[in-house]
Amino acid sequence: MAFTLPDLPYAKNALGFISENTLNFHHDKHFKAYVDTANKFAAGTEFEGKSLEEIIKKAKGPLFNNAAQAWNHGFYFDGISPKAVAVPAKLKAALEKAFGSVEKFTDEFAKSAAGNFGSGWTWLVEDKDGSLKIVNTSNAGNPLTDGLKPLLTVDVWEHAYYLDYQNRRPDYLKDFVAHINWDFVARNLG
Ligand code: MN
Fold first, then answer.
1. Are residues 33 and 106 both part of a single domain?
2. What is the Å distance from ligand 1's center to 27 Cα?
3. Domain count of the chain?
4. How confident is the model at residue 36 (pLDDT cuts 50, 70, 90)?
């Protein structure tokens, strides 16, 4: 079963801080290309028919890069909400335990993402012992390869924000953390 491009969970003009123009390129062109290219590199190999997660954990090179980018983009878009979402109690308690408060978490997350050099992703993850951490990855990197459970990610490749924010990555991140879909994060925490 080939991978397919998922629809965005909101209208392209719904977010406010990310424009329809950006989403036309980011979802319809970049994300689609990663899905299509992952299918191309998986076809006829031991990975054909495997899940993106299985491929991410085992593959290297172009198949890893495209499968991870396909997974990362779906996860990123699902983590954004057009409307403010309250932080569910269990997640709130976990964030307070790890970072002191929800606001301290979003500050630290945005700061880590602003300092993630070059193209990559910044993640909130759950470690094997249940603790929450912020990690940066470069290029297509995904924390699943380190045995970490992703809860939230932000895309800091320039294509994610350059049409709307140009070089102002910190402004994009300030707006991103105000649009986190906390229900999605809480579901990932389990
Ligand atoms: Mn992207």
1. no
2. 8
3. 2
4. very high
Whether residues 94 and 115 fall in one domain: yes
Q: From the CA of 26, how far away is ligand 1's center (Å)?
A: 6
- Return the pLDDT at 1: 65
Ligand 1 centroid to residue 97 C-alpha, Å: 31
- Identify whether the C-beta of residue 117 lies closer than 8 Å to the C-beta of residue 132: no
Burial (CB < 10 A; 0-12, 13-18, 19+), residue 127, is middle
CA of residue 87 to ligand 1 center, whole Å = 25
Q: Give, in order, the Cα–Cα distances in Å from 182 to each of 29, 97, 175.
A: 27, 17, 15
Q: Let me know if residue 5 belongs to a domain.
A: no
Q: In the predicted model, what is the mean pLDDT of the chain?
A: 97
Domain annotation covers residue 173: yes
Same domain, 49 and 98: no
Spacing, Cα 69 to ligand 1 middle (Å): 8
Rounded distance between C-alpha atoms, residue 35 and residue 149, angstroms: 22
**pLDDT at residue 190, as a whole number:** 79
Print the domain residue range for 117.
89-188
Residue 64's φ and ψ, nearest 5 degrees, are -55, -50
For residues 117 and 49, state if they share a domain. Answer: no
Measured in Å, residue 161 CA sits from the centre of ligand 1 at 9
Residue 173 CA to ligand 1 centre (angstroms) = 14
How far, in Å, from the CA of 13 to the mean position of ligand 1?
18
**CATH code where residue 34 lies:** 1.10.287.990
pLDDT confidence bin for 84, thresholds 50/70/90: very high
